[in-house]
Amino acid sequence: MDNSIAKNWKTLSGETHWKGLLDPPSPDLRTYINHYGEMAEATYDAYIQEAHSKNAGNSMFARKNLLKKTGLLLGRPLNQYKVTKYMYATSAIILPGSFVMSSDPHAWSKKSNWIGFVAVATDKGKEALGRRDILVAWRGTVNPSDMIHDAEMRLVSAPKIFGAIHLDNPKIHEGWYSIYTTNDVNTRYNKTSARDQAMEEVKRLVNHYKHEELSLTTTGHSMGAAVAALNAVDILFNGVNKQSSNPPKSCPVTVFGFASPRVGDAGFKKVFDSYKNLYCLRINNMPDVVPKYPPLGYSDVGSEMVIDTLKSPYLKGPGNPGIWHNMEGYMHGVAGVQSGLLGGFKLVINRDITLVNKFGDILHDKYGVPGFWWTLTNKGMVQREDGTWELDDHEEDDDP
């Protein structure tokens, strides 16, 4: 197997902030970006959005089966990870589209939703990636109109991340901060916040593999990309990336954010930019409005890679905001973007075009791929021994 990704992983993860590497990206970089994109996509593929289900807002799949049942293992040597932790979130404020709550009186939770996972590369994954990677993937909001509504919120201080006093007084979007840091002691799944769940697990894994070469990668789409950026700077600010080895060392932290709205103000950007081993690549689709929000008082962080799915000959045009924001559409764009504003579109890597239609009717009809094809068999309805039917759309983990 070609091990060029393993040899060049530091460059691919942003050691030079991707200078000179994005216009156009190499096949390795396209593959690498989409590797992390697929991990973000898994949080959508496994998310139960059926409000009639008592499991609405939870994951369909147990941790041990997540990557297999979302189709991320076959033919994907980079995706060899073990999922070690699920994170759950609640929020002190209402964020349309960010949570699905069950209408069933026996719902698994009335206040919490599954929000992502922590995973670590297996030995096979380590060989393909060139080091042991610890990954944190955050679920986002699918509907761009919800995202724009969510973006219309105030900037707030972030004492749970940066402490009570910070010279730069960084301020964060209130919604992203609430989802990331809110806990509720009266719930089963959010006695601690999504932040604390993720940070505790990352710290455990960093210590467990303290004698190995490590990297930390956070990823997400839409709201998930914003939370991934928050999570990354939180890891650096609070020293969670420091390995207790002899001599002590710190592993790099990289964010791959797809369709990310803006996260914080100029003070947040100043803190973000102050870390020499923190890298962020924002992948933005030209017609997608979400990365342009919130429009005032915010500063972009990291580097930007621009794609334009309007140029793809595979997709129906002109599309709509939902199509332009679609995560699978983003990965299709990464696979085919060419150089400059006048560049066309050509699939440089072998990205299966059928994936674009998982949550939309986006491909041209001539390809013979049904729209919205990603669904459980019979929408999760299974037949009992007595011939009656029931909804069974969630599997429990063997351990808590």
Automatic annotation (TrEMBL):
Enzyme Commission designation: 3.1.1.-
Enzyme kind, highest EC tier: hydrolase
Instruction: Name the InterPro entries on file.
Output: AB_hydrolase_fold, Fungal_lipase-type, PLA
Q: Which domain of life is it from?
A: Eukaryota
Q: Which GO terms describe its cellular component?
A: cytoplasm
Q: Which residues form the Fungal lipase-type domain?
A: 136-296
Set out the biological process GO terms recorded for this chain's protein. Answer: lipid catabolic process
From the UniProt record, which GO molecular function terms apply? Answer: phospholipase A1 activity
Q: Which UniProt keywords apply?
A: Hydrolase, Lipid degradation, Lipid metabolism
**Described function:** Acylhydrolase that catalyzes the hydrolysis of phospholipids at the sn-1 position.
Stated family: Belongs to the AB hydrolase superfamily. Lipase family.
- Protein name in UniProt: Phospholipase A1
